[in-house]
Amino acid sequence: MSIRIFASLNAALGSTRLRSLFRFAAGASILGLAAGTALADPRTPISSIPFTITQSGSYYLTANLTSPGIPAGGITINASHVTLDLMGFVLSGPRPSAIGSASPGILVSAPNSNVAIHSGTIRAWGGPGVDAASASVMLEDLRVVDNRSDGIRAGDESTVRGCTATGNTGTGILVGEASTVLQSVASRNGGHGIDADVGSTIDMNTTAHNAWNGIVGGNGSSLNGNTATHNAMAGLRAIGNNTITANTVDFNTLGISCGGACVVLGNGVSVNSQTGLSSDFLASGYASNVFQSNFENVSSSGPGNAQIGGNLCNENPCP
Question: pTM here?
Fold first, then answer.
């Protein structure tokens, strides 16, 4: 009887061991496959420039890359549905030897769309840092520095978010119609800080020490929650039919300049060397703004302009 019990237990143990071994082997195979999948990066690496992208897909830089010289450009994108990750690396042009060369750091050719470029620095190119003037693009977390033209050019319906454009000889960030510029910085550029075309949204940006206007908003654009300081012309230049709310505008030549039919609400405008708010054309309204220590706080002589109420001029109600 004891012999039979021992034999049965031994058989059961053997069966359990076989099942355990099978499960271990199967698990190892699955883990191996998973590890293999993780190691296989489906993106295409870019390890030298110039480089041209001709197919949709995802691409990434493997290191800091420098142009071999004139007339070589950086990266050209000749396809739609492309993501380019700079991986925190620097894409450098041949400047200062780039005088006479208009090569951009990154060129997105027309009529491509759904192109995203993010996370890196583009500097010292003879042309724009990013030239996507004829394409719809999304640009995020880029630093575009010391280029011998505009920092960023983006076409209609583009988005620029969290980017910095500084020290470029042209405009820092230039976008087409119905675009969005959000949480970006444009400083010490040779043109405007930010220039957005018709129907754009320009929110929560900072512009400083630009040679022209801090921000230019095209007809029908909204300018909300921005800071514009120490720009050589106007802090905010609104072409017309604009909504201008909750901005801080100080130490510019002009504070807010409106071409007409603007709604100007809740802005802080101070210490501008000429006029705080200039709306000398027609039908603009302004309310709940604070004007302080501007050479002239408000100039609104155009027909139909209206102080809606709640404006303060040097801590007193505006006349």
Answer: 0.86
